[in-house]
User: Which sequence fits this backbone?
């Protein structure tokens, strides 16, 4: 299995081009199940979760060609309405096929994703909403089975602004003739991007990116071309790596408006952030001031950047607090950071980080994508050599990570 060897302690300097957003590309690709026409999606990052999505689409009957960041999805054979367990267990976002397939064929069968390292992650909010639009829901042999004569448009109020449930219901509603209103919807930029793509496919989506999304659906969605937004989590990860190493980095293609909560926290930590016509520039000369954060649905501080933020705060001049309020078990990286000399106390969803002047290299292990990214940030800043095992987690979400970091002056190599 691959691992990273990082010789830390070098400031990152230069420019890095931000890739397309994984979490926007996934639902966009899955939306292509709603038409037999060809769809072309650009700025699709080359990473493991995208390859899993391509396999999922192919398994369901689509023909997909994917090269140099562009995916062309075409009619292949008669579409299947089932997402099998071997793909769902690799990538939970596979449950997003339920909405498009249910709207189009009146039935869908999706393996129930189990819990994962960051939490239980049930899909009850998705299922309640499908019921509201007239679907029957049952479980059989570990699968969720959805069926209906015809999905009906309607109004759904989510009990929590779940990103996945909002996307699943937007796609379903886009394929149903009539007006559906989603209230207390998730407001993440990836939702807005999906709204744009569905509109290009022939639905009319208003309010994506606000807490009320109105979808005027049609049973005749057609092919479309789209370019995925820049990845705000990749942006945040490079940004924090630049600051933790007291570097100076330009993030080309980054969008400040997608990262307001992070940028505010970064400024309070004493680092410099400048908006440029082509993106963002971040710079730090000194150890950060301690800043408390708690994660929330967008536009709050993103849960996906909590771990890299904690890595940055391990080097602060003082004590800071982190509270993870989106997932119930997302502070596993604290123990690994501790192996590098970080001083972190955890209790449930909370962590108190006592900043130290420096971290030192150690053998450590990634437990999920963003925990892995946090370890990379820490290792780049640490004195000496760090070996990170289980980089397959990191490969799910970061395109050409070691190549991009090397171009910024990092000493990182992949070995197996
Ligand atoms: C999306 O996951 C992202 N994944 C996650 O990114 C991200 O961490 C998360 O949104 C929050 O921003 C993709 O976009 C593919 P949720 P999702 O439904 O849709 C609970 C990464 O590292 N919940 O908003 O699964 C759930 O358990 C990944 O790139 C229910 O209780 O997130 C969690 O505690 C990890 N019932 C909270 O809501 C439900 O039916 C947020 O989940 C659905 C969710």
Assistant:
């Amino acid at each position: 299995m691959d691992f990273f060897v990082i010789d830390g302690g070098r400031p990152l300097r230069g420019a890095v081009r931000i890739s397309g957003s994984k979490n926007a590309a996934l639902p966009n690709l899955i939306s292509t199940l709603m038409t037999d026409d060809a769809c072309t999606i650009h700025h699709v990052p080359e990473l493991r979760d995208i390859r899993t999505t391509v396999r999922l689409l192919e398994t369901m009957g689509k023909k997909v060609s994917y090269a140099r960041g562009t995916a062309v999805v075409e009619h292949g054979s008669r579409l299947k309405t089932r997402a099998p367990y071997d793909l769902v267990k690799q990538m939970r976002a596979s449950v997003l096929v339920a909405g498009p397939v249910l709207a189009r064929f009146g039935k869908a069968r999706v393996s129930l994703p189990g819990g994962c390292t960051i939490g239980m992650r049930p899909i009850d909010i998705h299922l309640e909403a499908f019921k509201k639009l007239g679907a029957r829901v049952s479980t059989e042999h570990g699968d969720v089975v959805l069926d209906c004569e015809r999905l009906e448009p309607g109004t759904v109020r989510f009990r929590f602004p779940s990103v996945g449930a909002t996307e699943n219901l937007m796609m379903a509603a886009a394929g149903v003739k009539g007006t559906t209103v989603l209230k207390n919807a998730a407001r993440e930029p990836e939702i807005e991007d999906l709204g744009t793509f569905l509109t290009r496919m022939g639905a009319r989506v208003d309010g994506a990116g606000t807490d009320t999304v109105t979808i005027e659906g049609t049973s005749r969605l057609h092919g479309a071309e789209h370019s995925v937004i820049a990845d705000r989590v990749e942006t945040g990860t490079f940004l924090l790596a630049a600051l933790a190493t007291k570097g100076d980095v330009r993030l080309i293609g980054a969008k400040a408006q997608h990262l307001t909560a992070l940028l505010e926290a970064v400024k309070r930590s004493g680092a410099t952030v400048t908006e440029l016509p082509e993106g963002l520039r971040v710079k730090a000369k000194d150890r950060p001031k301690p800043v408390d954060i708690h994660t929330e649905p967008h536009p709050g501080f993103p849960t996906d950047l909590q771990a890299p933020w904690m890595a940055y705060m391990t080097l602060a001049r003082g004590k800071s607090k982190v509270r993870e309020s989106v997932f119930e078990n997302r502070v596993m990286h604290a123990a690994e950071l501790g192996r590098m000399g970080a001083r972190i106390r955890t209790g449930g969803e909370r962590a108190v980080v006592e900043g130290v002047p420096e971290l030192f290299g150690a053998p450590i292990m990634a437990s999920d994508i963003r925990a892995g990214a946090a370890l990379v940030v820490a290792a780049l800043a640490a004195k000496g050599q760090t070996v990170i095992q289980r980089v397959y987690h990191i490969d799910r979400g970061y395109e050409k990570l070691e190549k991009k970091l090397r171009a910024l002056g990092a000493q990182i190599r992949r070995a197996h």
Notes: The longest strand covers residues 62-67. The mean pLDDT is 96. The pocket of EPZ is lined by residues 23, 26, 93, 119-126, 160, 162-165, 186, 303-304, 326-327, 369-370, 397 (CB under 6 Å).
